[in-house]
Design goal:
The protein contains eight helices and no strands. The protein is an all-alpha fold. The C terminus is likely disordered.
Length: 186
């Protein structure tokens, strides 16, 4: 359910893009809708849980800055940079977690559900960081080498599909090593 809520602004962006009859205006309506949806999402999370989620705030801040620049300057290039900025921020958080705190981010997020050796957590954490670097680069490639409508579709279907495939692959990798830390040697 949380993943669906996290993708709600992207879904609404996609829908809003196709509302205007003049397709050249779709990106601006979609950007405004995404900003509003993200503000609502962050506010709802705060009301429901009594706190803000840091990555939602980072995403909202980047959306306000880059989406705002898109709307003020009437230039879609800025909103096209937003996914890359978010994915690269995620990559930095995953990498930084290797050096800050006793456990990396992958381990902190999943350790309650599964036990694995420290080396597996490091590999998993690094793979997520590299995956987000890749996603950011891929977003730029699609955004600036294909038609705007192709990028809008890629932003929803391509990115979501890649994240799901990668998460499933990671779960298989993690499942192979689950419980190894509890094995004892005679």
């Amino acid at each position: 359910m949380k993943v669906l809520l996290d993708f709600l602004p992207v879904l609404l962006f996609f829908i809003a893009y196709y509302i205007p009859a003049d397709r050249s205006q779709g990106i601006y309506l979609a950007t405004a809708v995404a900003i509003g949806a993200s503000l609502a999402q962050v506010s709802w999370h705060r009301l429901r849980h009594g706190r803000f989620e840091k990555m939602q705030l980072v995403t909202l801040a980047l959306l306000i800055v880059l989406g705002g620049a898109t709307l003020l300057l009437h230039d879609a290039r800025y909103i096209k940079w937003k996914p890359t900025a978010v994915y690269w921020a995620f990559a930095l958080v995953f990498l930084g977690s290797e050096f800050i705190g006793g456990k990396n981010l992958a381990r902190r997020m999943m350790e309650g559900a599964i036990t694995a050796p420290a080396v597996v957590w490091r590999r998993l954490n690094l793979s997520w960081a590299l995956f987000f670097v890749f996603l950011g680069g891929l977003n730029l490639f699609v955004a600036f080498n294909f038609a705007e409508e192709t990028w809008v579709k890629f932003k929803l279907f391509g990115i979501l599909g890649l994240i799901l495939v990668f998460a499933v692959a990671q779960s298989f990798y993690l499942a192979r090593h689950a419980g190894e830390v509890h094995k004892t040697t005679p």
